[in-house]
TrEMBL record:
Record has Protease as a keyword: yes
InterPro entries, per database record: Peptidase_A8
Name of the protein in its database record: Lipoprotein signal peptidase
Native source organism of the sequence: Pseudarthrobacter humi
UniProt entry keywords in alphabetical sequence: Aspartyl protease, Cell membrane, Hydrolase, Membrane, Protease, Transmembrane, Transmembrane helix
Length: 196
């Protein structure tokens, strides 16, 4: 009886797997939409209520709103190749969507949802903001001391990467399975205790 229950737990029936899969896909989609919408709403607020270059103290000296437009990546790297970042973000978004069918973990659903929402948030800026399609400058506004100015999409991507690193270190795969490191083999065989 217990062997039968253990086998059922190890191999869930398709009917019990469907609701779990739907839940994981809902989590993924929910976090992606949340990150994307929050990013776009905050950028809309910044562009409609602040002048570019304006700096507003929020929690001085730790936090300021500082409205800039960034044509490059973090720390303004690659300012002259904005189109490359558009292609990379589009590729990342497609790669995430191709991996969604393998989801078997709520934590991976959270991480990939945040990653997709963040990538699409900045990709929207690249595609539809000035100066031109695919070359748009990203709206950044969150300023911390001695750090790059960033936005909600950047925060979502960094949070996702941190979660993915933790999951990888804990050996939790995308499908929810756990990978346990094999025990090291003994370097030498036990010695014969017969006194020889």
């Amino acid at each position: 009886m217990t062997d039968h229950l253990a086998a059922d737990a190890a191999n869930p029936s398709p009917s019990s797997a469907r609701p779990r899969r739907a839940l994981l896909l809902s989590l993924f989609a929910g976090f992606a939409v949340f990150a994307y919408v929050l990013d776009q709403l905050t950028k809309l607020w910044v562009t409609s209520s602040m002048v570019e270059g304006e700096r507003i103290p929020v929690l001085p000296p730790l936090l300021h709103w500082y409205f800039i437009r960034n044509s490059g990546a973090a720390f303004s790297i690659g300012e002259n190749v904005t189109w490359v970042f558009s292609i990379i973000m589009a590729g990342v978004s497609i790669a995430i969507l191709l991996q969604v069918r393998k989801l078997g973990s709520a934590w991976w659903s959270l991480a990939l949802g945040l990653l997709l929402g963040g990538a699409l948030g900045n990709l929207t800026d690249r595609l539809f903001r000035e100066p031109s399609f695919g070359m748009g400058h990203v709206v950044d506004f969150i300023q911390l001391p001695n750090f790059a100015i960033f936005n909600i999409a950047d925060s979502a991507v960094v949070s996702a990467v941190a979660i993915i690193c933790i999951l990888t270190l804990k050996g939790i795969a995308l499908d929810g399975s756990r990978h346990v490191a094999a025990a090291p083999k003994e370097a030498a065989q036990p010695k014969d205790t017969d006194g020889v």
